Amino acid sequence: MKSIVCHGARDLHVEETETPAIGEGDVLIAVEAGGICGSDLHYYQDGGFGAVRIQHPMILGHEVSGRVLEAGGAVTNVRVGDLVAVNPSVPCGECAYCKKAMYNHCLDMRFYGSAMRVPHVHGAFSQQLVAKGSQCFAFPAGTKASDAAFAEPFSVALHAVSRIGSLIGKRVLVTGTGPIGALVVVAAKLHGALEVVATDIVDEALERVHQLGADKVFNVGRGDNPLASYADNKGYFDAVVECSGSQAAILTALEVVRPKGRIVQLALGGNVTIPQNAIVTKEVELCGSFRFFEDFAWAVELIGSGRVDLSPLLTQEFPLEQVVDAFELASDRKKAMKVQLKF
Known about the structure:
There is one protein chain. Helix 3 crosses helix 4 and helix 3 crosses helix 8 (295-304). This protein has nine helices and 20 strands. The protein has helices at residues 38-46, 145-148, 151-162, 179-190, 203-212, 247-256, 276-281, 295-304, 323-330; strands at 2-8, 11-16, 26-35, 48-49, 52-53, 58-59, 63-71, 83-86, 89-90, 110-111, 128-132, 136-138, 171-175, 195-200, 216-219, 237-242, 257-265, 285-288, 314-319, 338-342. The chain is 24% helix and 29% strand. It is an alpha/beta fold and 343 residues long. The protein has two domains: 2-150 and 310-342, Quinone Oxidoreductase, Chain A, domain 1, CATH 3.90.180; 155-288, Rossmann fold (3-Layer(aba) Sandwich), CATH 3.40.50. The strands form five sheets. Strands 3, 7, 8, 11, 12, 19 and 20 form a seven-stranded mixed beta sheet that branches. It has a six-stranded parallel beta sheet with strand order 15-14-13-16-17-18, with helices on both faces.
């Protein structure tokens, strides 16, 4: 089969690889669609992020859907012919956190397309993939593979929104409107938010999230402060989901969130400096959101039932052979939101 293999920065190739054999609890999947994620772009552009570097060739990708070709005898949740999304998280099931059902904090997690451990965990950008049956979630007949491939990033957004708590009647600010931020807008509206405001520094990205349901959008990269009035009377927003990784965004969040509001830090980034007094005097809750687990099944149900339509986020699909063109387009935030590969 053919796979997309990254050897380091700007060193990406389509190569022949071997399809692993399947076990009793495994399924063989013909991958149909795969979305390019921010982490894939980091590996392509820089050879990694932070201290995590590619040390040997690694297959990329973790946002995939495909058709079940073969199922082991112990698999009961999916059948041959099903269109499935594959949860890229493979927790150990044995550590202290797994035993508390905190699977996204597994101490021995194997996550597709990750160079965090050596040897690296290969990703899912291959024509065929062997996964555990428990990783696979089936969609109703008629679902498009491109829609199904949104299950993984939508899970991230759903998990972040769940960290806020009830959103009925709440006003929410989303800072950063890349693919995850855009999906957070969708998830917040779905959960009953009364108003969702989004910010970014790219007009084209803001226009897309406006079309997805954001009530107001602001470009905060022009030197003025379009959110200044939201800081009046100790703040306006009940919650902020920070999706940019920018210190400026966190500082703004602390200004515009109301007393006893909650800020959910979703984006990864480096060290930042924050005013402790603002957190103390406004009794603000600052919490993180990392990956997902049970949220994956929710994402599949919401997409498969048609309750959410994420297709407006899909900018373009590329055949496997044009993978470099696909990654280059995905790197341009003015032109692209989500780029997918067709296998």
